[in-house]
Amino acid sequence: MEIPQVYQLSGKRRLFRYPYRLDSIGWMPHHIYEHRNTVIRGCFICLSGNAEGRSTTMVNGKMQKTEPCRMPHFSFISPGTVMHSLQASYHDELFFHYPEECVPALMDFLGPELLAEPGFFFSRLPEQIIAEIRRELTNLEVPGTADRLDQLAIRLFTEILCGRRESDTGAASGRNSRLKLHSVAAALPETAEPLAALLRHFGYSERTFYREWKKDFSISPAEYKLRKRLDNACRLLLETDLTPGEIAGKCAFSSTAHFYRIFRKRFLTTPGKFRLERQSPLFEGKSPGL
């Protein structure tokens, strides 16, 4: 199980006068947190997902309810917000905390619509940028790392908001259909359910699903699922000390033997040899796991 951790950046030396300087970054896998009339200091931008149950929170005196959901959620929490949990649920969360003096410039950059709608679901995490953030978090004492994390956070928000604004230019029905399609894509690598059962859960007929799938993807759903599972397995091999058997379970392979067979067929080597050959000596300390 990955350990939740908050990485403090406020005391780290910066080399540049970047206007959006982070106080901290937090990675909280499978955690539950209950606010008790918490007054938010500074600003939090949170990416959360994999909510396991319903939650109810009073935000500035107004009740907000959420349902269990796999999709990632973006939320902007401004200074002075008062939060009180009535019902909390386990979820994954990546948060970025900014000091209050950075908030005006940050809000001006991200856009005024975040004040009107400070939270929304979106279809795809920018995985490459998150991987870069993970790598930088292993080197916080190196000069320039805090500067890079400041900039990577803005790149991450930009990618998410650009995707949302692009989708807003289309018709609502098209937008909702695309979100639903990418919700299926996000669920594919994580579930052992057959595709037909997954499509029923999302209200798709197979004919409609395959027609929509071909518009956005150049490979089959089966190949997409396999690639995502193998990508995740490779990441865990390089960034954690988990055994191949543990990785097989985390990546939803039916057995360790099945994982070895598929891995060897795709990469022409075993998971153990892959780990030995590919690990970089620059990162002998394992990634914090995000």
Describe the protein in words.
- With 290 residues, the protein is of the alpha+beta class.
- The protein is 43% helix and 18% strand.
- The chain folds into three domains: 5-168, Jelly Rolls; 172-218; 222-283, Homeodomain-like (Arc Repressor Mutant, subunit A), CATH 1.10.10.
- The protein is built from eleven helices and ten strands.
- The strands form two sheets. The protein has a six-stranded antiparallel beta sheet with strand order 1-2-9-4-7-10, with no helix packed on it. Strands 3-8-5-6 form a four-stranded antiparallel beta sheet, with no helix packed on it.
- A hairpin with a 2-residue loop joins strand 5 (55-59) and strand 6.
- Helix 9 crosses helix 10.
- Residues 170-175 and 280-290 have low confidence and may be disordered.
Write the layout of secondary structure elements.
Elements lengths: L4 E4 L15 E8 L6 E2 L3 E7 L5 E5 L2 E5 L6 E5 L4 E6 L3 E8 L4 H8 L2 H4 L2 E3 L5 H10 L8 H24 L3 H16 L7 H7 L4 H11 L4 H19 L4 H7 L5 H12 L3 H8 L12
Helix pairs in contact: 3-4, 9-10
